[in-house]
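I hope you will forgive my troubling you with a question about protein structure. I should value your view on which stretches of the chain appear to form regular backbone elements. Here, with my thanks, is the record as I have it:
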Amino acid sequence: MILKDIHQYICILLLFAGNSYFTYSQTDNIKEPLSGEVKSIRVTIEFVNDSIQNLKLFSIDNDYGHTGFISPTAVKSNFNSVWHETTATRYLNYYQERDSKDRIIKELWLNKKDELVEDYRYFYNDNSNLKQEENTSEFEKKIAIEKFCDFQKYYFEENLLIKKTEEDYWKDKEDFETYIYDKNKKPINKFRYYSDPGNRHLMDGELNIYEDTLLVKTTPYNYSNSQYDQGREYTYDGKHRLTEIYQLLYYKWASVDDTLKRIYSSIPLKKLYRTHEYDDNNNIVKDVFYNDDNSNNDSINHFKTIERQFKNNLEVNIKTTYSITKDELSVTLIKKEFDDSNRIISYLRYFKDVLNAERHYAYNSHNDVISIQLVNYDESNGITKNKIEFKFEYDSHGNWIQQIKSVNGQPLFIWHRKIEYYN
């Protein structure tokens, strides 16, 4: 969910034309894979030691950290990365309901006082596509009226999105987007009319060109000032693999009244932006990025190179080289080792050929990580070691219902999942 206003109440309504439909994924939610016919999940984090709480940037931050509650996806993703890779934790507290087809229909997010933070409701059509999403916070529930609700409507022909409209309570006109496709159902034209936060009415779009089914050129266009902006051009090898990406700059920099400004042109300046190299299994083994130096010629500067090595299609070595200056490079190397079940068991990170971090993993029979050995090295050759251990409890369906996270032998956090089933 993208909030245009802190007190915004969002409603999404999808309209379906005839028998056509648009697969609208739950982009703002992550559904944990669970065994059995799950009816509901209650998720909480318990702090064993009151003096050791979840991560915050400042003491005045709310329970979900400095940025607050952003969306279910962001909160769950950030929590998982911190829980599994550091000695700390973030915060989780929600209740989720699923229907008999294992689709999320309700999710309530709470704070440490079990007060409502966000309320999500999901509705589906007969094809299991999400057709309506509603969301509001506790504050918004107290003040929300019809005008505080945003509506997004989608129109389709032959399963292709052809128009999207949006009404916002703070805008005096309806925003809309239109789409045109080629015979291969590839989008070739997108037009957008919208209002910015200053309620200025703007128009832009995007033009795409294909060769067979391969995108070879895309050009954004600003209808408000009748100018092309910064486009892209793509080249491919004989196996239809993307090998080069070019910037198409429809402007030049010029000094106007002692101010550097863009002077637009109908003929673009073409500059190399990125290149790919592949192995025989179509893995990208070399990625090179270039910076535009803002000059009015075709010169470019190397920015970053990523070189990868694969073993059994698993990425085992990653070397990243940054250009700090013209003659100075910063090199980072990551080495990974996997077991026979393709589970990572070792992660080593080098900076300028010096080892500065390592992790070692162990698993249980459920393939859950039960221990991580963290080792960090500072510039003065100091070593910091931490051992993270996870103790699991499982229910009769094989789903874990409790994780106890210990750091250096001390239990600190407990992740609870109370799961209710239909059967």
Q: What stands out?
A: The first helix runs from residue 72 to 85. The helical segments are 72-85, 138-143.
